[in-house]
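W.,

You were right to be curious about this one. When I first looked at the sequence I had no strong expectations either way, so I just let the prediction run and decided to look at it fresh. Below is the sequence, 230 residues in total, followed by the output.
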Amino acid sequence: MLAQVSPWYAHAVQRMAAAPAHALTAPARMEWSTHPGLGPGAELLGRDLRGKHLLELGCGSGHNVAHLARYRQAHATGVDLIGLQVRRARSHYGHIDGATFAAGHALHHLQATGRTFDAIYSVFGAVGLIAPAPLLAAISRRLRPGGVLAFSVPHPARAGRHPSTDDHPREDYVTMPDRFRLPIARWEFDARRWSAHLSRTGFRVTSSRELRHPRLDPWPTTLLITARKR
């Protein structure tokens, strides 16, 4: 029921109606922002990912999972709250060895699984949309020692906005394929506040990047943070 009242469910319904899912070739690059080719790629998760176990929280249509399985020879699992998105991801990339997809809430999945991972990542996914304290703690428990957490979130200064001054979520919007906007709650921290939350849950930040398209974006649009479990 939670999934079906989510704005992301409405987004998936519109996407499915506009473009029925079919098998695709895995993308040749992993993306962290809305601009293809901007910023780093899969190397953020490790130099050699062959045989590594990776988990994406909020995989959407599965493009990054497919890249990691096909081109990096990783065992990549994508979890998404919306069952329609998981069906779409499986239709796109279910034929790729090493790529698997599961429906479920990211926090509940982390709490229920007995598996551990070499890296966990989120690309405009669960990180920032779920309360940071329980989510980051659950991620830490599921990462092996020295494991990598990498996530990209909308930059808190995009379009002239300002970062949150406290640890509470604030109202944001998700734009539907038909351009209608629906409200969502989002934690919009700057790098310093994210670093504090990560430190409290056993992580050490190793990099923080602000991404913007040099011609299209007057402000940074993506905040990309990488951390390692102590």
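Here's what jumped out at me. The domain at 3-14+48-229 is CATH 3.40.50.150 (Rossmann fold). And, maybe more interesting for your project: The chain has one domain: 3-14+48-229.

Coffee later to discuss?

I.
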